[in-house]
Write a structure and sequence with these properties.
Elements: E1 32-34, H1 37-48, E2 61-64, E3 68-72, E4 77-78, E5 83-96, E6 108-109, E7 118-130, E8 134-135, E9 138-141, E10 146-148, E11 151-152, E12 155-158, E13 166-167, E14 170-173, E15 176-178, E16 181-182, E17 186-188, E18 192-193, E19 196-199, E20 202-204, E21 207-208, E22 212-214, E23 226-227, E24 230-233, E25 239-241, E26 244-245, E27 249-250, E28 253-256, E29 259-263, E30 271-272, E31 275-276, E32 280-281, E33 284-287, E34 290-294, E35 300-301, E36 304-305, E37 309-310, E38 313-316, E39 319-321
Parallel strand pairs: 1-2, 2-5, 3-5, 4-6, 5-7, 7-10, 7-11, 7-12, 8-13, 9-14, 10-15, 11-16, 12-17, 13-18, 14-19, 15-20, 16-21, 17-22, 18-23, 19-24, 20-25, 21-26, 22-27, 23-28, 24-29, 25-30, 26-31, 27-32, 28-33, 29-34, 30-35, 31-36, 32-37, 33-38, 34-39
Length: 322
């Protein structure tokens, strides 16, 4: 008697799971681990997809596990919406480039609005040479964004001969910057500060030690400003408090040891408990704390200038021009 055997072959779909980044699950107690330059590039690719409606990174946690050197001509994160713990480690970056369009650059570019993106405990070193609104940590922060306990040691230079400015921590700040230090040399045509170039938010407990040099700060332009901490302050500024400048500040118009220009009609917060220890030099509207107050009353409380202030007209130990 012949026997027949039916062999059933079942094909299953096998998926090979590749663990993202260097480990972790992206939650607060188990953040994604960043160990290498490839992990940073993976983060860049993931964050860039946010502009194509991929939002899986929102609210995810990351931690830098070791110092990383990276040579790129772009930012490592575009529109980052998560929580990045630098873990007191360094990113040594060389971001170089010049483009005819409106490009900005920094380690993080354009932290997304409507998210509580947070950058904490990160140290940045190297060179950042670009154009239009550049910074060491982030070119732009939105209302809910937080940058805290970060240090910029990178030299930041805006290559545009008459474009927007530069800063050590965040070029345009609408969020909160606290306990941050800029040690880098910052150079741009205008709108330049050690911590922020253009501040609408809150800056507290920050220090600038780097030299701030504006090559073309305009004397009568309310958008112009050069400051050890902030270049310009505008509507909606919450506060600038408990900040110290010990880096030389040099420009042409609206130059201040702490803030260059203070402008806006409503909702502008006070300047309190700030100290300038360094040399401040300009041509017009030059002050040890604040260079120019435009069309606004400003509260300056418990601020001290111990630096030399030099200029041709409208020069003051505390305020240059009101």
């Amino acid at each position: 008697m012949k026997k027949y055997f039916l062999l059933l072959i079942v094909f299953s779909s096998l998926s090979i799971f590749s663990e993202p980044f260097g480990g972790g699950s992206g939650i607060a107690t188990d953040p994604y681990q960043i160990w290498t330059e490839d992990h940073l590039k993976e983060l860049k690719d993931s964050s860039a997809n946010l502009y194509h409606n991929s939002t899986w990174l929102i609210g995810k946690y990351f931690i830098l596990m070791q110092d990383i050197n990276i040579l790129i001509n772009y930012s490592i994160c575009e529109g980052f919406p998560g929580y990045f713990n630098g873990n007191r480690k360094k990113i040594l970056a060389e971001i170089m480039g010049y483009y005819p369009d409106d490009y900005s650059s920094s380690i993080f570019t354009g932290l997304l609005s409507n998210t509580t993106a947070t950058i904490d405990n990160l140290i940045v070193e190297g060179i950042i040479n670009y154009q239009l609104g550049i910074a060491g940590i982030s070119d732009y922060t939105h209302n809910n964004n937080i940058i805290s306990n970060c240090i910029n040691n990178a030299a930041v230079k805006n290559l545009h001969p008459a474009g927007s400015g530069a800063s050590g921590i965040a070029y345009t700040n609408r969020g909160t910057i606290s306990n941050c230090i800029n040690n880098g040399i910052i150079t741009a045509a205008d709108r330049i500060g050690g911590i922020s170039g253009d501040n609408y938010g809150s800056i507290t407990n920050c220090i600038n030690t780097g030299k701030i040099t504006a090559t073309n700060s305009k004397v009568n332009d309310i958008f112009s400003g050069v400051g050890g901490i902030v270049g310009t302050i505008a509507n909606g500024c919450v506060r600038v408090s408990n900040c110290i400048n010990i880096g030389n500040v040099v420009g042409q118009g609206a130059v201040g040891g702490i803030i260059g220009t203070f402008r806006g009609a409503t909702g502008v917060g006070p300047i309190t408990n700030c100290v300038n220890y360094s040399y401040v030099k300009g041509i017009d509207r030059v002050g040890g704390i604040l260079g120019w107050v435009f069309n606004e009353e400003v509260n300056i409380n418990n601020c001290i200038n111990s630096g030399v202030v030099e200029g041709t007209s409208d020069v003051g130990s505390i305020v240059g021009k009101e």
